[in-house]
Specification:
With 151 residues, the chain is an alpha+beta fold. It has one domain. Helix content is 19%, strand content 35%. The protein has a four-stranded antiparallel β-sheet with strand order 2-1-3-4, with helices on one face. Strands 6-5-7 form a three-stranded antiparallel β-sheet, covered by helices on one side. Strand 1 and strand 2 form a beta hairpin. It is globular, with a radius of gyration of 15 Å.
């Protein structure tokens, strides 16, 4: 499997990464897969406050402008815990996104992202279009929960 890795800086300049499994890049799928990766990167930026530092794809490393996040609320210890499963086998997977934007919390389901919000829908669409489940099949997004992590 391929991977997409993005690095973000919080308000204090501390860095955290997001890593998701993807299909291997081939001559036949590179254009479409790179577009899916860019869409996923944009969707993560829509739900997190961290400042992008760089993202990596199987075929290249793309430095981003760098610097620290502008919002004091951008703290790498506040993370979105993304739970998903392999759509074919049901095997569960998880990943974290640093600098969670807590304004996206669902008032009806406290502690979880409102996946019906514009940013939540954009993330869900981009996630399921790009990310593979643990067994290499399409992934189904189950939930996005706000968690705190001591780093």
């Amino acid at each position: 499997m391929g991977e997409f890795i993005a690095t973000y800086a919080d308000y204090n300049g501390e860095k955290s990464t997001v890593t998701v499994p993807t299909v291997d890049l081939t001559a036949g799928n590179i254009a479409a897969t790179l577009t899916l990766m860019q869409n996923f990167h944009a969707a993560v930026e829509g739900i997190a406050l961290g400042e992008p530092q760089m993202y990596r794809r199987v075929v290249s490393v793309s430095p981003q402008p760098g610097g620290n996040a502008s919002s004091p609320a951008a703290q790498r210890e506040l993370k979105w815990l993304v739970r998903y499963r392999d759509a074919t086998t049901g095997k569960k997977g998880r990943m974290e996104i640093p600098c969670a934007d807590v304004t996206l919390l669902d008032e009806a389901n406290r502690g979880f992202m409102d996946l019906e919000s514009v940013a939540g829908q954009a993330f869900g669409t981009a996630f399921e279009a790009l990310v593979l489940g643990p067994d290499g099949n399409a992934a189904t997004l189950d939930s996005v929960q706000l968690v705190g992590r001591n780093i």
